Amino acid sequence: MGALFVMALARKLQLVVLATIVAAVAVVAVVFLLYPPVVTRQSLVALGTLLALGLFSTLLDFRITESGTTTSVDFIPLLGAILLIGPAFALVVTVVLFVFRHTILHKKPAYKWLFNTSQRLLAVSAASFFFVWFGGVPSLESLDFRQSFPPFLLAVVAYFVVNACAVVYVISVSEEKPFSTIWRKVAGHLIVFDVAISPLAYMVALFYVLWGSATVLLAILPLIGLRYSYGVNVELQQLNHDLLRVLVKTIEGRDAYTSGHSLRVAERSRRIAEHMELSHKLVRLIETGALLHDIGKIDMAYSEILRQAGPLTPLQRDLIRAHPDKGVEIVSNVRSIDKKILECIQHHHEWYDGSGYPAGLSQTDIPIGARIIMVADSIDAMATDRPYRAALSSEDIRRELLENRGTQFDADVVRVALAGGILDDQEDKLNKSVKETRNQLMVKPMRKVGVH
Length: 452
What we know:
This protein is mainly alpha-helical. It is built from 19 helices and two strands. Helices cover about 70% and strands about 0% of the residues. A hairpin with a 6-residue loop joins strand 1 (about 60-65) and strand 2 (about 70). It starts with a helix and ends in an 11-residue tail after the last helix.
């Protein structure tokens, strides 16, 4: 059954790729019929200049998200070509650049570079149609701002919408995730960046018209600056996140019972937040909050409590209940920390009915990140061995979540967690984690049940 499902999914993906290629061929044919290229010495020089700029831009690819998504500023010569030498030549530039990128620079499989080239041809064609339909006139002689810039902005919008929709759709089919989820994760925040720098394409065309082909190469300087500044910023964010994970893993490594706990809670919280279709930024903040949710237990006194098999004393209970506030106190020393991360740390033990701690918040007064972490944290606590009880089965965890929704847990978060397969998909990983914990302890788990 699983093999048939994979085959069906692969076939659907193949059909999407094939449809994109066929559509691109048809649209390119229409463009060449409606707007045939005007071949002159001047247009060929402009074509060569834009190809040179495009090849250089292609080398400026950089990773833009933690999932490995890359972006580039190669759209600048493509949009510049529409302004200067028209739709047909813009498509020629597109084909040369993308064949170079995917067959020489990155050497991707044929179906990938055919799809990527085709979807970009569709995007350039859409931009060309909008530019011409709304009064834009490609020209190497003059560039009237009032006449050309409004159609250019419409062309920019058309380009990025078509390009992003094609990419997001094929990823959503491939990963079997909702279009909106992939859009927020991959495309939403990229479009803002790309649209913001798209006037560089107009600047390239203006430089060419005013001062000739040599001055277009001046555009290389801001391209390098943009690539460097934005790329370094993304890399620093990822480095900070990786260092944070290492720090949390090191702290938790002191205790075999809690080793890896925050990493697993962060992973589950991220997946639940994605299934709830929250914004990419909020998902990232919730994941970070989950990673730090128990940072308040850094004191060695907590290690003794967590290893304790018997009931807690009133003093120990007060100490446990103080760890969210202590965590906020520690993390708030970081000046750039987002308020939502602090809310996740402080309120991840609030119960939906208001009987939790430290503030006794209830229902939607509890930040959504804290409600998600409460569920993810509880799942991991139930799925791993503790000194006072053995790990629960997936079925037992499912039953506990359902029985306590509306009291301890937000019912919507529980529904999404169960429907999204957060338990089923992670069962093998959890069993492996439990086995590793038992091996570290080299003792049989105790059957006594309790809550710390």
